[in-house]
Design goal:
Distance between the termini: 37 Å
Strand content: 5-15%
Largest sheet: 5 strands, parallel
Radius of gyration: 29 Å
CATH topology of the largest domain: Rossmann fold
Shape: globular
Structural class: alpha/beta
CATH superfamily of the largest domain: HUPs
Number of helices: 23
CATH class of the largest domain: Alpha Beta
Number of strands: 14
Length: about 575
RNA sequence: GCAUCAGUAGCUCAGUGGAUAGAGCAAUGGCCUCCGGAGCCAUGUGCGGAGGUUCGAUUCCUCUCUGGUGCACCA
């Protein structure tokens, strides 16, 4: 419908191309102001006339059009009122299409997303949840737009921290305890190492020495390392299963250990490597950044080295058009440095293909999360707690309302986990999050369960319709009330919302949209009975329920959340 | 110190170079013998401050204040 408006304006206005017109056209803030609006401020300068007069002139030039009810001039705005039945029909039909909201702009091109990437031998806590949830949603969003997305879990499974763990394990650990408590025990060893190292700094040198051994392929070191890694992965996968998420590749930092030499060689031939305090660095002073450390003074690699190796590997292997890194904003400098180094090696594509997607810090009741101080909540505990609370509510509702819900545990999992995901995706990524159980477990208002509830309600309505024919013709002229039209307009934003979410790397746009549709539907529902005797009206309203239901489900799936038929 | 991000209603947050800046939470008061009350409706003296660009700035620029984060051998 917007295209037809653009056609009209293009034909009757000089000096603007279709793209410019399209960008100018807006949806008025209030329905009384029309269905589409075209502001004429910008034309005032070139046409040297008051914008109000320009609007009036354009109106006259357009004249009568078959699908337009009225064109109103309001100040500098040209407000278009589309004939309702035509507008309704076009919106319902658009929203009924199978891939509504999606497109094929991606054309099968590859996008790599590096996310989740927990540090092996450390617990998976609330902070890790953010990267996992945001990354997963971006995967869904870009897939919806026709991209071939590679989900890469770049495990933190290499580095000096394993030297520390080996030192700690050999000094204070034992096999039994690690077998019994898994990552929990490894964490204890890690914390103990840091406490002891404060008194005895030579422990740090020992740790670095063990890491050098790892890099040199020392059998004993690698055996312990592999064992710790296996233990950790089992625990992480349990959390991923709960979240209903998976990855295409688990390629941790260790995967690149034989590829860092090549990075050093490239940098050396490009004459970018300089020595400083015994270490090898790339000087970035010209770009107002601290130097990028490539090799430590003991010759071993560091995370930047491995990130560089990973970039070249991914470019060669997947030929990505974009490689996204979903990590905390505190790593911003690191990625700026690494991306700049890639660029300095003569890779212009680094400028727009390598993108850091930062998110805000998670704190716990105002204090920073810290394993060492015990100020920590584990992802798994949060998810299980939410599921358990949802289950209580479901059971209570079943007694109160006499509902018969088939799969209580499955539904509780869907809603509980969904609540956590939604809560994490609802605000802009960059906002810091102060974790609060109260907020997380309140399911009223702008929450996942609210949206899911609306979905279940749609399903329930459709199940209960009497004398309903799936294939009956719809009389669109029967839909005239404001609540119905608002609902349709809301739903029809979907394709643009998905594009915006992708452009800004902001799943929150989708979450906000899902809530807006749900709110709009609930208002419609409160004003319009659907299962009524008037068959034509019943079928018309049911058509709105159907597309609402479908759109909510598709939007929620983009967040990694499924919707239950009953709850 | 340098860099960077943020500052909108009591709280948590949306939002846009333009038509009266919006939601949710919390609070109070309402909601049809009828499709699901995890719902709907009603109540709101707010864009940190100062300049600048513009016909128009909460939005863009500069400065400033406040808070977060980062600044080499951790990732």
């Amino acid at each position: 419908m917007k295209q037809q408006i653009i056609d009209l304006i293009e034909k009757n206005v000089e000096g603007l191309n279709r793209e410019e017109i399209s960008a100018l056209i807006e949806i008025p803030p209030k329905p009384e102001l029309g269905d589409f609006a075209f502001p004429c401020f910008r034309l005032a300068k070139t046409m040297r006339k008051a914008p109000q007069m320009i609007a009036a002139d354009i109106k006259d030039a357009i004249g009568e059009v078959d699908f337009i009810e009225e064109i109103a001039v309001q100040g500098a705005y040209l407000n278009f009122f589309i004939k309702k039945n035509i507008f309704v029909k076009s919106m319902v039909e658009a929203a009924s299409a199978d891939n509504f909201g999606g497109s094929n702009v991606g054309d099968g091109k590859c996008i790599c997303i590096d996310y989740s990437s927990p540090n092996v031998a450390k617990n998976f806590h609330v902070g890790h949840l953010r990267t996992t949830i945001i990354g997963n949603s971006l995967y869904k969003i870009y897939s919806k737009l026709g991209y071939d997305v590679k989900r890469i879990n770049h495990l933190g499974d290499w580095g000096t921290q394993f030297g520390k763990l080996i030192v700690a394990y050999k000094a204070w650990g034992n096999e039994e305890a690690v077998k019994k408590d898994g990552v929990g025990e490894l964490m204890k060893l890690y914390v103990k190492f840091h406490d002891e190292a404060k008194e005895n700094p030579t422990l740090n040198d020992e740790a670095r020495a063990w890491f050098v051994k790892m890099e040199q392929g020392d059998e004993e070191a690698l055996k312990i390392w592999q064992w710790f890694k296996d233990i950790s992965l089992i625990e992480y996968k349990r959390t991923y299963d709960l979240l209903g998420m998976d990855f295409d590749y688990y390629l941790g930092e260790s995967f690149y250990r034989d590829k860092t030499d090549d990075v050093v060689n490239k940098l050396t031939s490009a004459n970018l490597l300089t020595e400083s305090e015994g270490a090898k660095i790339v000087d970035l002073e010209a770009y107002d950044m601290a130097p990028c450390l490539i090799l430590k003074n003991d010759g071993s690699s560091i995370y930047a080295t491995r990130d560089l190796a990973a970039i070249f590997y991914r470019k060669d292997t997947y030929n990505f058009v974009k490689c996204l890194y979903v990590t905390g904003q505190e790593q911003k400098l690191h990625f700026s440095q690494v991306f700049k180094v890639v660029e300095l090696l003569g890779n212009e594509w680094a400028k727009d293909q390598l993108v850091h997607i930062p998110y805000g810090l998670v704190s716990l009741e105002g204090a920073k999360l810290s394993t060492r101080s015990g100020n920590i909540i584990y992802a798994e505990d949060i998810l299980l707690e939410a599921v358990s609370k949802v289950k209580d509510i479901i059971i209570e509702n079943m007694e109160k309302k006499g509902q018969d819900i088939q799969d209580v545990d499955g539904t509780a999992k869907m809603v509980g986990v969904g609540a956590v995901l939604f809560n994490d995706l609802y605000n802009q990524r960059i906002k810091d999050v102060s974790f609060s159980w109260d907020k997380l477990l309140n399911f009223n208002g702008e929450t996942g369960p609210y949206v899911q509830y609306t979905y279940a309600r749609c399903s329930s309505i459709l199940r209960g319709l009497d004398n309903y024919d799936e294939n009956a013709d719809i009389d669109y002229s029967l839909i005239t009330d404001a609540a119905s039209i608002d609902l349709l307009k809301e739903i029809n934003r979907f394709p643009q919302v998905v594009v915006d979410a992708a452009d800004k790397y902001e799943p929150s746009q989708i979450a906000r949209f899902a809530v807006a549709v749900a709110q709009s539907f609930n208002k419609f529902y409160n004003e319009n009975r659907i299962n009524i005797d008037d068959s034509a009206l019943k079928h018309a309203r049911a058509a709105l329920v159907k597309i609402t239901r479908k759109t909510i489900k598709d939007a929620m799936l983009l967040l990694g959340i499924d919707c239950p038929e009953q709850m």
